[in-house]
Specification:
Layout: H1 3-29, E1 43-46, H2 58-64, H3 78-89, E2 91-93, E3 98-99, E4 110-116, E5 127-132, E6 137-143, H4 147-153, H5 158-162, E7 165-171, H6 173-179, H7 183-207, E8 211-212, H8 220-226, E9 234-242
Antiparallel strand pairs: 1-6, 2-3, 4-5, 4-7, 5-6, 7-9, 8-9
Helix pairs in contact: 2-7, 3-7, 4-8, 6-7
The structure holds flavin mononucleotide.
Flavin mononucleotide is lined by residues 66-67, 69, 157, 213-217.
Length: 246
Amino acid sequence: MQKKSKYILVAIILLSVFLLSYLVYTVFMQPAKTENQSRVVLGTYNLPQAEITSGMSVDQAIKNRRSVRNFTTTSLTLQDVSQLLWAAQGITDSERNYRSAPSAGHVFPMEVYLVAGNNGVQGLEAGIYQYNPYNNTLEKIVDGDQTHALSQAAHGQEWVDQAPISIVITGNYQKMKDKYPDENLSTRFVDIEAGHIGENIYLEAVARGLGAVAIGSFYDDQMINLLKLPSNETPIYIYPVGYSAS
Ligand SMILES: Cc1cc2nc3c(=O)[nH]c(=O)nc-3n(C[C@H](O)[C@H](O)[C@H](O)COP(=O)(O)O)c2cc1C
C-alpha cells in the first residue's frame, strides 16, 4: 500500500472511532432531559408569620439533633411549616432582602419546595408548593399527595414516604456562575449553601420537637420531573420532617 493510502486509511479509522463514540454518548450517556417544563401556579397560600418562640438554645438544638427515619402520622401545623421554611430561606433582613442562611456574594441561588402529603399539614391540601420568601407564601405547582413518588425518586427510602412533609432544596448553578465564572468555585458555593440551609432545617425541626433527615441520594431526572423544575434548577437535598416515632 502506498504511503498516502495508509494515511487516508488511518484518517478514516480515526473518524469512524470518533463518530461511533459521539453516537454512543448522545444516545446512551446524555444526562436526563431537563428542559424547561411548563409550570402553572395552581394557587397561592399565605403562611403565618414566623416567630422566634422555641426557647431552645442553639447549643441544646445542636446537642439534640439526630437524623430521624421513623415518623408518626401526626400532621404538622402551618406554623411548623412556616418556621421550617423561614429557617431554610426566610427573609431576616427586609431592607436588603438577606436570608436566614448565608449566601456567597449574596447571590441567593437557592429555591425551597414543600411536599405535603394527605393530612401532612393541618389546613393545607396535599401537593407540591414553592416557597416564596419575599411575601411569605406557598405557590402550589403540583396537586395531590406526591410523597410516594418522592420516595421512589429517593431510591425508595421509606422514611420519605412516611413523613408528613418533605422540604426539597434546589440550586441554580448558573446564577452563581454569572457572578463567579470559575466553575469549580461557583459549584462549590451552591453546594455549600445547600448545606447551610439543610442544617437550619435540622435545627429548627429539633427546636420545635420535630425530627428530620438529610437525603442526598435520589434520581435527578425523577426529581426534576416531579417538581417540574425549570432547566436552571438542580435538586440538591430532600428533608423529610415529622414527629419522631422512636
Ligand atoms: C450529604 C448528606 C447526604 C445524606 N444522604 C442521606 C440519604 O440519602 N439517606 C439517609 O437516610 N440519610 C442521609 N444522610 C444522613 C446521614 O446518614 C446522617 O447524617 C449520618 O448517619 C449521621 O447521623 P446524624 O445525622 O444523626 O448525626 C445524609 C447526610 C448528608 C450530610
